[in-house]
UniProtKB/TrEMBL annotation:
Highest taxon of the lineage: Bacteria
UniProt modified residues of type 4-aspartylphosphate: 54
Name of the molecule in the record: DNA-binding NtrC family response regulator
A single MF term (Gene Ontology): DNA binding
Length: 118
């Protein structure tokens, strides 16, 4: 199975750092998308194996995108400084692994590998 990951992050430098890190580690990166609408358009083209979501984006909360991912059976992790992202992004985020922000590389990679069953 191809290891594809959708990055949804509106802070440009963080998004690029994530993209470069993941590509170096053999992942095929979709995005990064800085807005919910942009990410939804990417999902229409290709379903990733997993997604990394920032909680608040340019066009609001990531809630609608998280719901679309869940409907398509795409697991996701949250990259958030909030200790309880579900208080900001809704109940859909409860229980999703939070890799934190700033994200610790080894933890992120381990969680992604675990989620795709590699």
């Amino acid at each position: 199975m191809r290891k594809t990951v959708l990055i949804v992050e509106d802070e440009f430098l963080i998004a690029i750092d994530l993209k470069l890190l993941l590509e170096r580690c053999g992942w095929c990166v979709l995005g990064p998308a800085a807005a919910v609408e942009e990410a939804l358009e990417l999902l229409d083209d290709e379903l990733p194996a997993v997604a990394i979501l920032d909680v608040t984006l340019r066009d609001g909360s990531v809630t609608r995108l998280a719901e679309a991912l869940r409907e398509r059976h795409v697991p996701f992790v949250v990259a958030s400084a909030y200790s309880r992202p579900e208080l900001i992004g809704g109940e859909i985020l409860a229980g999703a692994p939070n890799v934190g922000k700033p994200t610790e590389e080894h933890r992120l990679l381990a969680v992604l590998e675990q989620m795709v069953g590699a």
